[in-house]
Each structure stands twice: as structure tokens, then as C-alpha cells.
Task: inverse folding
């Protein structure tokens, strides 16, 4: 199978980490959905990263759907217990929502300074900080979200924290969230996280 990614994308990183952790053979294709030469619009009507092309030609997109597919094929990263499963899903939603707010902020900041909406930027900033505080409070003293030591919740949270460092470095989340920092340090020891460290790509100026 082939996973289309963009190097900064926390959503693509979730899919990459899951593929690596589940030891699913795959190729990675680097795209940039913001550039005219991007191939992604031919694969995904929403023209978004990540997009997974299966060996039989089927195409899956959105990191949540890709994870769901991988988990159905090769389980191990969601707890059996219904209550814990929902905790993982909800944690993913908060982590992804923080990433969405960082993307909005990044794009708004690509606009000329006079055109930027401070109202919009401050709404996104509130979501980012509130989301981080929420996840900090949800972590168990063991440093995981449930008894499952490493699963979807940890993958999504780790990818979100790496993305904050790349695209929202003005926020010192480490001081705000010491338990998340411990989790992040633990995750960064895994090969799947080390091999997928995000890197910037150019985005055209947004008028
Ligand atoms: N909910 C989607 C979000 C995917 C997403 O926003 N991807 C961004 C890259 S980080 C993208 O491809 N943006 C291009 C665009 O919006 O046109 C997921 O979880 O996969």
C-alpha cells in the first residue's frame, strides 16, 4: 500500500505511526497539497493528506478512517473495554481539534498582517490551550490515558505535541503540561515517532 503524506502533517503522522507500529509494509509518497503539482486531488475529492491507496486499488482518506482500517486488519491499539475505547476516541478528537486550530492559525498568519483576523486567531489560541489543559488532566499517573500503555490516544496526542513544536512554537506547552511532557518523552523513544519527526513544507501566501 501507499500512504500519501505531507511532511508537517500531524494527521499523516498518525497514519505513519500506526503503519510502523503494526509493521504493515507500505511506501510513503511525499506530496504537498498546497502546490499546483500535487497528485492528491486525483485520489481524494477533498484533496487532503493523509490518503492511503491499498494494494487492491481502494482509496481511504482521513486519518481516523485510515486508523480504523488498520486497526480492523491488525488490532492492538484500541482497548477491548467499551469505556476505555471511547476515552481513546475522545482523546483523538481533542488532539486532532488542537491540530486543526494550529493549521487555521498557521494559515491565517500566512496572510498579510493587515488582513489577519485577531478575533479568529484568539479563538484558535483558546482552543489550543484549552485542549492541551484537558489532555493534561485526562492523563493517568501512569502517563497513559487508559490501562493500555500505547494506543490511539497516545499516538494522536504525541503527533499533536510534535506539531505544536513545529507550527506553534510560541506556546510553551511543556511548562503548562508536565504530564504530557513525560508522555511525549516516552513516545519519542519509539522508532515510529523518531522516524516520523515533522518537517516544514512551503505553503503559498494566503490572501
Ligand atoms: N480530518 C483530516 C484532516 C486532514 C488535513 O487537514 N490535512 C491537511 C494537511 S495537515 C491537508 O491536506 N490540507 C490541504 C487542504 O486543506 O487543502 C484527517 O484527520 O486526516
Result:
Amino acid at each position: 500500500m501507499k500512504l500519501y503524506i505531507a511532511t508537517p502533517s500531524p494527521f499523516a503522522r498518525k497514519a505513519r505511526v500506526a503503519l510502523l507500529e503494526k509493521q504493515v509494509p507500505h511506501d510513503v509518497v511525499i506530496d504537498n497539497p498546497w502546490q499546483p503539482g500535487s497528485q492528491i486531488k486525483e485520489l481524494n475529492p477533498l484533496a487532503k493528506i493523509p490518503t492511503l491507496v491499498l494494494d487492491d486499488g481502494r482509496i481511504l482518506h482521513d486519518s481516523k478512517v485510515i486508523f480504523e482500517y488498520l486497526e480492523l486488519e491488525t488490532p492492538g491499539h484500541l482497548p477491548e473495554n467499551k469505556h476505555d475505547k471511547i476515552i481513546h476516541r475522545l482523546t483523538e478528537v481533542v488532539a486532532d481539534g488542537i491540530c486543526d486550530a494550529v493549521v487555521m492559525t498557521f494559515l491565517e498568519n500566512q496572510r498579510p498582517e493587515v488582513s489577519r483576523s485577531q478575533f479568529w486567531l484568539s479563538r484558535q489560541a483558546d482552543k489550543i490551550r484549552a485542549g492541551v489543559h484537558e489532555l493534561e488532566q485526562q492523563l493517568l499517573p501512569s502517563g497513559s490515558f487508559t490501562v493500555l500503555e500505547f494506543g490511539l490516544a497516545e499516538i494522536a496526542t504525541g503527533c499533536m505535541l510534535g506539531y505544536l513544536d513545529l507550527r506553534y512554537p510560541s506556546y510553551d506547552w511543556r511548562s503548562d503540561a508536565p504530564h504530557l511532557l513525560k508522555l511525549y518523552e516516552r513516545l519519542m523513544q519509539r522508532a515510529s515517532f523518531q522516524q516520523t519527526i515533522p518537517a516544514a513544507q512551503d505553503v503559498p501566501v494566503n490572501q
Residues 6, 9, 11, 33, 47-50, 62-64, 96, 103 surround glutathione (CB under 6 Å).
